[in-house]
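Shift notes (night). Ran C_GCAxxG_C_C family protein while the centrifuge was going.
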Amino acid sequence: MLIDYVKKYYDKEYNLNCAETIIYAANENYNLNLDKNTLKSMAAFGGGMAIGSVCGAITGALAVLGIIFVRDKAHESSKIKELSMEFFNRFQSVFHEKNCIELKEKFANYEERCSKMVYTAAEILEQLIEEYRVKNI
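Came back to this:
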C-alpha cells in the first residue's frame, strides 16, 4: 500500500520534504520507474514552495496523478483536471486549508512534523488512483 512507502520515506532517515515523500513513495508503490531528475523535481515544492503556499503533499500527489494519467500533455487528458480537482476537494474537506503555513499551525508538531497531511494525501491519492482505474477497466 502507498501509505507504507510514505511512512518509509517520511522517516527522518531519508530527510525528504512532503512533496518528495509522496513522489518517492508512489514511484516505488506503482513501479513508475522515475529517474533521479524526475524525483528531484519535487524538491522545490516543500514548505509550500518555500513560502508557505500550497502544501507539498498536495503538489506531490498532483504530480503523481499527472505521471500516471497523462500520456504526453495535460490538454490531451480529459481526466487530469477532474482528478486534480477531486484530490484537492477531498484534501480540503479534511483540513479546510490548502496552504502549508496554515496547515502547520493547526496540524503539525515538531515530533510528527506534517505527517497528518502527508498520510492523508497518500490515502486520498491511492483512493483516487484505484477508483479511476476501476472505472476505466
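The chain has a mean pLDDT of 95. DSSP finds eight helices and no strands in the chain.
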